Fold:
Amino acid sequence: MSFLLLLLCISALIPVAEQKPLCLITAPNIVHVGVDETVSVQVHGATNPVNVDLFFEDQINRRKVSSEVHLSLNEGNKYQGIVKLKVDPELIKNLEKAKRHRSPYVSLVAQSTDLFEKKYEKGEFILGSMKKANILLSTRKGYIFIQTDKPIYTPNEIVKFRIFTLDDYMRPTEETIKISIFNSKGLLVYNIWKNTNQIIQQYLTIPDVAQ
Structure:
């Protein structure tokens, strides 16, 4: 899986005595709704404990779409840590129900007074002690693989098929899926919901209506 690297640093113009530590945050370049995503934080040049809060927010509405996770980095953990962040499907649905325009991106937000300076523009406060990076959001999760014993069937033939469901890391996962079969004219001849329990192996006789 490819990763998006975010180097969060402070301007070199700040006097050395006031410089903040350097921080490197890594996260996936695509996050999926309802999937735990791995985010890591490394701090360089720190001499005191560093506290960081991480969460996802909608890029346009700036509303949180995940829980907020706290990291405390210190000598004991070598100033590095890993957390899991998940875009909450219900929070995404709430944005859609409110008829708010939802961006195809979410922002990964890192908040820390130990790492980031407050920003001012023309003497006015514009941004708190945080850094943001936009990441593409996908509503799809995992993979489905279908195997059949032959490519073409005729009415009343027995179809042997297997269905595998995998998560985003290609690991077997249990899912509830809908199996639908259509004939050459687009008519639905079979339709059922099944729990995969990681794999479905089944036999099916094609009905005469498939003619």
User: Anything to note?
Assistant: The helical segments are 89-97. The longest strand covers residues 36-44.
